[in-house]
Amino acid sequence: MDTAQPLSCPAGTVLFRPGEECPGFVRLTSGTIRVTLTAPNGREVVLYRVGPGDVCLQTFACLTEGRSYAAQGTAETAIIAEVLPHRLFRAELAHNETFRSEVLSAVARRFADYERLVEDVALTGFDARLARALLRLETSDGRITITHEALAAETASGRAFVSRRLREFTRMGLIEQGRGWLIVRNRGDLVRIAAEER
């Protein structure tokens, strides 16, 4: 009988890469997985994050279509999970109504995330996109530990452009920044900018 296998790993562990086969369906108990796509020129974009109760669309597609991964999944924090092998996943999906409902609801939520990503990139001005990323990533004390390159991946843009706009945000008193960190200084104005469409 196929059984779920426990999985735990520290932050920074690469869980899957493009071209690799999928070992099974991952159900997170704690932690976050960041899923990214990297272009041939090395430019990276964050597609989405997977937390407890979420579904990784890459994994779902691999399991339902029998294809290999097209993106990379990295443990953003330490994670604890279980992996359901292919046959167990398919059996649960076919015969367990509660499991099937949870998975399909999570897939629908993930597609909504994709829609928001496309909308942000295609229809939203960059300052609003950057402000949204900063608000999403800030901790309770307003601090964000991140590089300009990582922020470029979060906003589907180039590092040099992110650096220029962060300098302008600093000049406007919205943030304070240092090497590898930012602090939100004017959350109200950042929220206002994040709400702008263009």
Structure commentary:
The protein has helices at residues 57-65, 86-95, 97-123, 126-137, 148-155, 159-171, 187-194, and strands spanning 5-9, 14-16, 25-30, 33-38, 44-50, 72-75, 79-84, 143-145, 175-178, 181-184. By secondary structure, the chain is of the alpha+beta class. The protein folds into 2 domains: 5-122, Jelly Rolls (Sandwich), CATH 2.60.120.10; 125-194, Winged helix-like DNA-binding domain superfamily/Winged helix DNA-binding domain (Arc Repressor Mutant, subunit A, Orthogonal Bundle). Helix 2 crosses helix 3, helix 4 crosses helix 7 and helix 5 (148-155) crosses helix 6 (159-171). It is elongated and about 60 Å long. The N and C termini lie far apart (55 Å). The relative contact order is 0.14. The mean pLDDT is 89.
Features:
198 residues; three-stranded antiparallel beta sheet; four-stranded antiparallel beta sheet; Jelly Rolls; 7 helices
Q: Estimate percent helicity.
A: 40-55%
Strand content: 15-25%
Radius of gyration, whole Å: 19 Å
Which regions are unreliable across 5 or more consecutive residues at pLDDT < 50?
none
Distance between the termini: 55 Å
Tell me about the largest β-sheet: 4 strands, antiparallel
From the 3D structure, determine the CATH topology of the largest domain.
Jelly Rolls
